[in-house]
Amino acid sequence: VGDMFRSAGYDGVLRSVDNGENWELVSNGLVDVFITSIAIDMNDYVFASSEDPLIPPYPDGIPGGSRSIDGVFRSMDNGDSWTFIGGPGGGQLTTNADGYIFSVTEGRMYRTTNNGEAWVEISVDGYPAGLYGPVFDSAGNIYVGRDYDHVYYSTNNGDKWTAIDNGLVRVAQCLTINSKDVVFVGTWHQGVYRLH
Q1: Where does the chain show beta strands of DSSP type E?
Q2: Entry pTM
Q3: pLDDT of 98-114, one tens digit each?
Q4: In a 3-state reduction of DSSP, which class is residue 106?
Q5: Is residue 136's pLDDT more than 80?
Q6: Contact 33/19 with Cβ under 8 angstroms?
Q7: Dihedral sign of CA atoms 167, 146, 45, 65 in order
């Protein structure tokens, strides 16, 4: 598609077709939302995660009123219209080269392999909570961190994980990766580490 999307918070989603020079609101179907993140998969489907920052998640279905919906919306027409598909709300959405979509919300990771129709929760080393990331390298490997613990990586879309130590103190708080597949780990009062 080549277009750009960003969150407009309670107003929905903004789209730019000219590299960010101008933005238009594309929120047809986005009712009672607070958009936290947006991702685009290999089919050019656009996904937007919404959360209610004030109250617990709603049950399945779109509620009335002015409170925000907890879950994921999908657009199959470049943002012109949106459909609520459920799933984990308020997450940080990311996609990989295999077309899988990952969401980390409240420290828990979820994955869908069928365009958001069904989500499964992924545990890392037996523990489901306290996760952040993920980031992906050019080979499709996934890296995640766990609060005050190791950084982990998976070569099979999250089915199995291996801990990375390499002298990393257990106070990791955030991850990023550059174009050369070097992973950087931000820590709590201990600086930044680089994983080789």
Answers
A1: 4-7, 13-16, 24-25, 35-40, 46-50, 71-75, 83-86, 92-95, 101-105, 108-112, 120-122, 131-136, 142-146, 151-154, 162-164, 172-177, 183-187, 192-195
A2: 0.80
A3: 888 998 887 888 999 99
A4: coil
A5: yes
A6: no
A7: negative
